[in-house]
Specification:
The complex is a heterodimer of chains A (649) and B (244). Chain A is mostly helical. Chain A contains 29 helices and six strands. Chain A has two domains: 289 residues, ABC transporter involved in vitamin B12 uptake, BtuC (Orthogonal Bundle); 336 residues, ABC transporter involved in vitamin B12 uptake, BtuC (Orthogonal Bundle), CATH 1.10.3470. In chain A, the strands form three sheets. In chain A, strands 1-2 form a two-stranded antiparallel ribbon. In chain A, helix 1 packs across helix 6, helix 1 packs across helix 10 and helix 4 crosses helix 25. Chain A starts with a helix and ends with a helix. In chain B, the strands form two sheets. A six-stranded mixed sheet of chain B has the order 6-7-8-3-9-10, with helices on both faces. Chain B has a four-stranded antiparallel sheet with strand order 2-1-4-5, with helices on one face. The relative contact order of chain B is 0.18. The model of chain B has no long low-confidence stretch (mean pLDDT 91). Classes of the chains: A mainly alpha (649), B alpha/beta (244). At the A-B interface, helix 22, helix 23 and helix 29 of A face helix 2, strand 6, helix 3 and helix 5 of B. The complex binds adenosine-5'-triphosphate and magnesium ion. Adenosine-5'-triphosphate binds next to strand 2 and helix 1 of chain B.
């Protein structure tokens, strides 16, 4: 008011800069945790944010609920509980993943995320509001004309302390130096005589502590909320990507860039209009995609995967028989189910359709997507807008739109390893949650859009019974399509890509193109499934297609058996069943997450899942069919070599 | 000018110089050998030639074209094919499918018309795997799997074939078959670059042999010259077991 506008501008700028540095420090702390675990164990911990979430809640439990003094609660959480959890995770889950494919370790870490989310929601019900006050709230002091709260000052100091600790630890201590050797080249670790197990366990303990620190510092500023804190992992890996998941200093730079970008965005960019509302929380995703575009192409590695046996592809006759049986059973069952059950089982079929879209992508091609529900949402959106009156145009556009969007988001990651594609899809799903599905122009002001049921060739699938049968027909038809693809040249290419990317490249295959095509196929299928799912529900709304729905979709598809259509069917029905179970046992929040997570971390390594186990059982009962599958144990690399050597000698 | 010309190639892994200023060439219609003790850098050199490993220095030229900027699959399309020391077969596919994938990929990009089925049958015959055609490769012993890799490489219709430890894990009958096959292929104009531990195998097949030791080229010459070479004998004395 009293003139000196320049100084105000400067002060304001400084204020936003300080806030940006504060957020950046938290992102940097979280991101370094990711980098430390990834570079020493080779496993990217998607559950990193979930660990921070559980630890922030634990801190709340001790500090607020049990009135412990802050220093003691902090000590217990950061230096006891978190490292212990990290070590236990490493010992029980991650150690078994040595030599596993990117897809297998992703499934297990996604399973862990979902499990921790389930545990968090079961212990601390999401319906209860909880608050964690900033440290020393509301004390603040003035520095260079800028107000800095004590909490913010502490955050920056902790960020610096973590950097100094890691520097000293990695440069000065013996085990730290061993860890750094791994950071530089994992293969050299055992050559240097270090103990990989100890190094790996320690790195998970440290990573977990860092996640806890980040969670506790961030919760008062954002919200003590399960989802929000779990999603911290997206911000963290966007920052870590600046350091190419390896360099700790660059990771810090990444965290700061992200923090400052958010702060300046809040301070200076005031875009109005509903499309811009979601932009701020989407900044990490945007940064991730920019960084991905700038990354150099990753080197192909001759990675030997511990052999996973894929079941033999059913012949044309068998898949036709299966399809006919499925439709027949659906037609009969539809006559006996009440309309509520028709919708519930129908949902199972719709989920099965979405999971089927993962069979070519993940089951055959070995690539992982964490955004199938987002594609389904795009499909439902297209059906709502263009499938008025159940026109088939809606269905076609649903598939086309999802495929086109799929191509765009896959492109930056295609030159890179499978991990980057999976991370992009998760970031994209989060972005769509913020910017698209919650936008009032998408599903309307009332939050939902009506979605019509299909009518074509004079057939009306508007009743519950006929729609149920339609879903079964769609599943049967698309299953046959998928198996037809698998038996043809493209399917051979996919299997080849999964078995050995190096070999594919050296026989002239463009891996990027193969990945692009299969990703688009998968997105199109998910879009189509989403359109049909929307029709089943009769409407589509912002919360139907959230990112967190895509995770159980992947996990249950894997549990059912990601290499087969029957696996997708089992997975889909299981998902619907879990939904029903959850409704009955409302006292346990997050039951679906709890059970899928538990399932995924326990048998997530076997990509053949339950359907394979069932068919093995059946074959033991009816040995007549045993020629259908090549039944092998699941050998580790060394066993495999021995087995091969033995049979050669 | 030779078909493959490797010029002053160097590779560094952290502090380790896996290759230093290596020169090498391979000609059409000839079998060229590349030998050296364990860890000499043979596989690394193959990786550089096929584009799987970026060199820290030097050049690779194929058919007078500089390859530096080309990706592995682009190099393969120029006519460079290889096999792997640690097998990289498509284990979940059958022998026939392993070979067919390669032929199909070629028919996808090549301007010539490629009948993938005919090529596959022909290659199955060449490598003698007709009986195992419909067997999944992850159930096959190493020797046969090596033949599958060779067949897959041949299905790309290469001009240069890089074989990494072609005879390891093979029975003596299979080794003899492999030797005969390589002679026939090179007589038909293919350039073969052979990495081998079986010295007898190399000596009997190759017209020219390169010797690597600790990443350095220590000798080039005919089998006779190499056998007499003092530096080579010294390099191999330390690792007698491997040379056997
Ligand atoms: N990716 C890598 N990272 C670090 N060091 C590597 C890597 N690949 C190879 N090396 C090292 O480079 C050197 C050369 O290895 P290379 O595999 O090329 O030898 P080689 O001559 O093929 O040996 P062998 O006869 O055992 O197959 C070895 O010391 C090896 O440990
Ligand atoms: Mg080698």
């Amino acid at each position: 008011m009293h003139g000196e506008p320049d100084e105000d501008v400067v002060t304001q700028f400084l204020q936003y800069t300080v806030l940006g540095i504060v957020t950046g420090a938290v992102y940097a702390i979280a991101a370094t945790g990711l980098v430390v675990t990834y570079s020493t164990s080779g496993i990217f911990n998607i559950a990193h944010g979930a660990i921070g979430m559980v630890m922030a809640f634990l801190y709340w439990e001790l500090r607020i609920n049990h009135h412990w003094p802050a220093p003691i609660a902090l000590f217990i959480v950061v230096f006891v509980a978190a490292p212990l959890l990290g070590a236990v995770i490493e010992r029980t889950l991650m150690r078994r993943l040595r030599g596993a494919s990117v897809a297998q370790s992703l499934v297990v870490t996604v399973g862990l995320l979902v499990l921790l989310l389930g545990v968090g929601e079961a212990i601390w019900k999401p319906t209860v509001a909880r608050e964690l006050a900033p440290f020393f709230d509301p004390k603040k002091f003035k520095l260079l004309g800028v107000f800095v709260s004590w909490h913010d000052a502490i955050t920056i100091l902790v960020g610096i302390a973590v950097a100094i600790f890691l520097y000293i630890f990695l440069a000065r201590t013996r085990i730290g130096i061993a860890m750094r050797a791994v950071v530089d080249d994992r293969n050299l670790l055992s050559l240097n005589g270090a103990q990989p197990d100890r190094v790996s366990m320690l790195s998970w303990a440290i990573g977990s502590s860092l996640a806890a620190i980040a969670g506790i510092l961030l919760a008062p500023k954002l919200q003590l909320n399960h989802i929000v804190l779990t999603l911290l992992v997206v911000n963290a890996y966007a920052a870590a990507m600046v350091g190419r998941l390896r360099s700790l200093p660059m990771t810090y730079v990444g965290g700061l860039i992200l923090g400052l970008a958010e702060s300046y965005y809040i301070g200076y960019i005031h875009l109005t209009g509903s499309w811009w509302i979601g932009l701020r929380p989407s900044l990490p995703t945007i940064m991730l995609f920019v960084v991905l575009l700038l990354l150099p192409e990753s080197r192909l590695r001759a990675a030997r995967l511990a052999g996973a046996v894929s079941p033999r592809v059913p012949s044309r006759r068998m898949s036709l028989t299966g399809a006919v049986i499925l439709v027949g059973v659906a037609a009969i069952v539809s006559q006996f189910l009440g309309s509520g059950d028709l919708i519930r089982v129908g949902q199972g079929l719709a989920f099965a359709l979405i999971m089927l879209s993962l069979v070519p992508l993940t089951g055959y091609g070995g690539q992982v997507s964490l955004c199938q529900m987002t594609f389904a949402g795009l499909g439902a959106f297209a059906m709502a807008k263009l499938g008025v009156n159940g026109s088939i145009v809606g269905l076609v556009v649903a598939a086309g739109l999802a495929a086109a969007v799929g191509a765009v988001i896959a492109l930056p990651a295609l030159r890179l390893q499978g991990l980057y594609l999976a991370l992009s899809t998760m970031a994209f799903a989060a972005l769509m949650d913020y910017m698209f599905f919650t936008n009032q122009h998408v599903f309307g002001n009332f939050g939902t859009l009506p979605v019509a049921r299909l009518k074509f060739l004079g057939l009306h699938f508007t009743g519950e019974k006929s729609y149920f049968v339609l879903l079964a027909i769609a599943f049967a038809g698309l299953s046959m399509l998928v198996m037809w693809v698998r038996r043809g040249p493209f399917g051979r290419r996919l299997s080849a890509m999964r078995d050995s990317q190096v070999a594919c490249a050296t026989i002239g295959m463009s891996l990027a193109r193969t990945k692009l095509v299969v990703f688009m196929l998968s997105a199109a299928m998910a879009g189509l499934a989403g359109a049909l799912y929307g029709g089943l529900k009769g409407s589509a709304g912002p919360i139907d297609f959230q990112m967190f729905q895509s995770l159980p979709i992947l996990l249950l598809a894997v549990l059912g058996g990601i290499t087969t259509a029957s696996g997708a069917l089992i997975g889909g029905l299981a998902f619907a069943f879990l939904g029903v179970l959850q409704a009955h046992v409302a006292s346990i929040g997050g039951l679906t997450f709890l059970l899928t997570g538990l399932g995924a971390v326990s048998i997530g390594r076997n990509p053949n899942g339950l359907s394979f186990m069932f068919s093995q059982r059946l074959r033991r009962l009816f040995p007549r069919f045993s020629a259908e599958t090549v039944a092998l144990p699941e050998p580790g690399f060394d066993e495999e070599v021995e087995r091969v050597a033995a049979s050669a000698g | 000018m030779p078909l493959l010309q490797v010029d002053q190639v160097g590779v560094r892994f952290g502090g380790l110089l896996a290759l230093q200023d290596v020169d090498l060439s391979a000609d059409e219609g000839e079998i060229t050998g590349l030998i050296g003790p364990n860890g000499a850098g043979k596989t690394t050199l193959f990786n550089v030639i096929t584009g799987l490993q970026e060199p820290t220095g030097g050049h690779v030229a194929f058919d007078a074209a500089e390859l530096q900027k080309e990706k592995p699959h682009e190099r393969a399309r120029r006519g460079i094919a290889r096999t792997f020391q640690r097998l990289e077969v498509f284990g979940s596919l059958t022998t026939r499918e392993n070979i067919m994938v390669a032929a199909e990929i070629r028919s996808g990009w090549s301007k010539e018309k490629v009948d993938a089925r005919a090529v596959t049958d022909e290659v199955l015959d060449t490598v003698g795997l007709e009986r195992q055609a419909d067997q999944r490769v992850d159930t096959m012993p190493t020797g046969l799997a090596r033949l599958v890799e060779l067949g897959r490489a041949l299905a790309t219709a290469p001009r240069l074939l890089l074989l990494d430890e072609a005879s390891s894990g093979l029975t003596s009958t299979e080794t003899d078959f492999m030797a005969g096959l390589l002679r026939r292929l090179s007589a038909a104009g293919l350039a073969v670059l052979l990495v081998e531990h079986d010295i007898e195998f190399v000596m009997s097949l190759c017209t020219k042999i390169h010797v690597l030791d600790f990443g350095k080229l220590i000798a080039v010459g005919t089998p006779k010259e190499i056998q007499k070479n003092k530096a080579v004998q010294a390099a191999y004395l330390g690792s007698e077991g491997d040379a056997a």
